[in-house]
Design brief:
Layout lengths: L1 E2 L7 H7 L15 E6 L7 E7 L2 H4 L13 E5 L9 H13 L2 E5 L8 E2 L8 H18 L9 E6 L1 H17 L5 H4 L13 E7 L13 H13 L10 E2 L16 E2 L2 H20 L10 E2 L7
Parallel strand pairs: 4-5, 4-7, 7-8, 8-11
Antiparallel strand pairs: 1-6, 2-3, 3-5, 9-10
Length: 300
């Protein structure tokens, strides 16, 4: 097991030895605390979660002991990204101004979270399970049910796809509709979601791919074989990631640089080209029970 590409560390060492997100610069909105989630994968996987809650600093002494009921946004970054990106900084900056808390998870193999390789995430269903656990875990930690905390789920790129699937699962759960067809298994009874769910905000979500943009079938076949044999290999046929334009602060090492691992490349291709179209066409992914959906997308 590796930890963000570094030697294995335990949860206590993660909390003690790594500064909070954006804390290296006084000009940035800094995370106020950190949570560490040990997932249900039974293999020691744990995820780093950066919390941005500046509400305590704005309270007077008479109310500082009361749990906050301010809304919270649960954010999932995209492939290769961590909690230290320009997009996250913009979100937490505006959230602080309007009194919204933010929780940012670093996906398995990303940032400070553990993983079997840097940026290696070949199984979307595993990521989805971890995302649902992240949401339930943070909400339980802040007492969202007792304090009737409004919450929304947000994500960018592949994180946007995870946010959409998570919103479908949460809304089904709140309406007593099974979600086995999306997760491959029943939702664990220990997971809970308050009825104060506001909706989902996918930012340029990875929800599809134009047919003409797909690689030729021989390339797809070769990628499938190579990814099954060497999922962590970084070959030139995979996308090349350069995080310099979104690193924040510029010196951060949390974001991945280089060709994507083959396992990650194959997972995202399968997700956008096959799984999502399949789930939409069979009415598995409709968001019919989600009250509010705000999609942010555009073209360069």
């Amino acid at each position: 097991m590796k930890f963000g590409g570094h030697p294995k560390k335990d949860k206590e060492e993660l909390i003690k030895s790594n500064p909070l997100a954006f804390s290296s610069s006084s000009n940035l909105v800094t995370a106020t605390s950190r949570l560490v989630l040990e997932t249900s994968d039974n293999d020691g996987t744990f995820l780093n979660i950066e919390i941005f809650d500046h509400s305590m600093a704005q309270k007077d002494d008479s109310s500082s002991s009361s749990p906050s009921s301010l809304p919270i946004l649960l954010f999932i970054p995209g492939v290769c990204e961590s909690a230290e990106t320009m997009s996250v900084q913009k979100i937490v900056h505006h959230a602080k101004e309007v009194g919204v808390r933010v929780a940012v998870v670093e996906l398995e193999g990303h940032g400070l979270s553990s993983g079997h390789g840097r940026c290696l995430c070949p199984d979307f269903s595993r990521l989805l399970q971890q995302t649902v656990e992240f949401i339930s875990f943070v909400l339980s930690q802040i007492g969202a049910c007792e304090n009737e905390v409004p919450y929304a789920v947000c994500g960018a790129s592949m994180g946007g796809a995870l946010a959409v699937y998570a919103a479908e699962i949460i809304s089904r759960h709140l309406n007593n509709i099974p979600c086995d067809d999306l997760m491959g298994k029943s939702l664990h009874p220990s997971l809970s979601f308050p009825r104060t769910f506001l909706g989902v905000v996918p930012i340029t979500p990875a929800l599809g791919v134009r047919p003409e943009a797909l690689p030729p079938k021989p390339i797809v076949w070769a990628l499938s074989v190579a990814a099954s044999l060497l999922p962590s290999a970084q070959l030139s046929l995979a996308p090349l990631e350069d995080p310099e334009h979104y690193n924040c602060p510029p010196e951060t090492k949390r974001n991945y640089s280089g060709h994507w691992p083959l396992g990650t490349s194959k997972m995202l291709l399968d997700l956008t080209a096959y799984q999502i179209p399949h789930d939409v066409s069979r009415n598995k992914l409709t968001l019919a029970h989600v009250d509010k959906v705000l999609i942010l997308a555009g073209e360069k």
